[in-house]
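Changelog excerpt

This revision adds worked examples to the README so contributors can see how folded entries look when concatenated. The first example is reproduced verbatim below.
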Amino acid sequence: DNVGINPKVNNMLKAFDQAQNDLLWICDSNVYTDPGTLRRSADLLLDNKRLGVIHHVVFSESPTSFAGMLDNAFLVTNHCRMYLAINAFGIASCLMGKSNLYYKSALDNVGGIASFGQYLAEDNMIGQALWHSGWSHTMTGDLARQPADIGSFSEYCSRRIRWVRTRKYNVTFATFYEPLTESILLGSLTSWALGHIFGLSIVATFTTFMSCWFALDMVFFYRINHESPPSWLWFVLSWLCREALALPLWVVAITGDTVVWRGQRFQFHLNGTVQVL
């Protein structure tokens, strides 16, 4: 069946329609979880009938290239940190579709998965639809682990641009706020302000700020994964490169309205849907 441009939705549609039980675990083929994840998620979902979805934070591992290390540095620090923070405060829907446990009845209540076939980020739009219909989200402490399998630097840049551009049309306000969650811009503004007000050295303040930010990212990485990176040297280099690329890639992403995905170019509409060019 084909209900739109999203291959994941098209692939799931028949199984979704034929599902006989109300609990559905939608998990990407390249994701694996720790033993007991499904049990813990199901127990949590069954304890609260107003929960629409249980989801798991994505954790990237085993990079085989520098591009993979860049993606790893992004997912296990900046992305993971913001993902957990937004969900901890419960201020908005924020989920990725890598590993989600749903009530089928809740999905049917917001139109079923077929109604999200015209979106690239069907996971985000499903989450928003559930959220605005009164179905809350929560997480277990489990990780949705996936390999950092990006093969080239250009592929990494293209992926970051594609998903920032997608978020621009799906969660516009949050996307324009994103640069203020990045270390270099925030550190530059902080250093300038402290230098202007208190006469502190801008260079020394910025260096201290970035060092503290990196240290906190490493503490965060260890608390999530319970072990150190395989190579500290390569992780530090990829972290620095990721931080330096964040703002330029955001600027490129925010100024366009088309993306290339799986060899096809798509045009965004203002309502977040896309069409093939």
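The second example, added in the same revision:
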Amino acid sequence: MSSSVLQTAVPILAYCASSITMTLVNKLVLSSFQFHMVFFMLAAQAFGSVALMVLANRVGLNVKYRAMNKADAKTWFPVACSQALMLYTGGKALEYLNVPLFTVFKNLTIIAVAYGEKWVFKAAVTSLMLVSFGLMVLSSLVGAWNDITFNGWGYFWMSFNCFASATFVIHMRKVIKQVNFQDFDTVYFNNLLTLPLYVVLSVVQENWTGFFEYYGDKANADELSSFARGIFISGIAAFAISYCSPWCLRTTSSTTYSMIGALNKLPIALFAMMWFPDPVTTGGVLAVLLGFAAGLVYTHAKNIQKRAQPSGAQVLPPPISMDRLDQNARSEQQASDK
């Protein structure tokens, strides 16, 4: 295999692997143990991202970011808070819904973002995008109809997450031009600003007394070890996504990156079906395939629109994946294209 092929294939595979690992580990941590510590997990991910970014910068890897400063922190803090809301509601949805169903309903966020962009930025919604939206809605209806483990709280948090995700994307797109963030700036500021927030909310909201009592029992030592490993891997995966997303963007094209984001949903759903004991139905599989097709159609529509736009014009973002930091990398892509 030629070196040029390897230079392209390695970052793509690294991005896909980190994305799949992140999603599956999040689901494991939030649904397989006695305590579902969403804020604690998010704090571990934020800490892991910041610590490993600093370490990578000091050992000479291509990880550069703007130093924290009061002016940018004050401007960016509301965006970081909206990201925190998006991640928390996504974690709660994963706690109650299986991963394939989560993947299907996450597509509905694209519709919310598209019409939010149309309202805020006067962006166009093309006929091919409408076709993809129809497929997204159909896949969601099929998924809900065949959800034999229906959980009302799961659908509540999923709806909340779609709204929070769309709000985050649109708000970030407005603010990012003011601070002119590049590459890892967005990731660094988001994680460093939200880390204290996650820690405080975890201490205040989560049942640490019950946690220590339960895992203080030696009979639960093995479960505690598994929980600790899951949290540790989650923190590493958070950094891996933040590193691999810009790496993938730099070594491929924005079109290729967008398509990878759409294609990656299928292996995530398939791995989840094999790994977790949730029942697999024919309708559930059909919903995943419809959602997968919708993502491909939307990505194609977005790329057509981008080619038709004058240089520097605003376009709709590519499909939103369930990756924790995928939005940050894509906003960096939009900023660098201007």
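Reviewer comment on example two: Residues 254 and 333 are 7 Å apart (CA to CA). The chain is about 80% helix and 0% strand.
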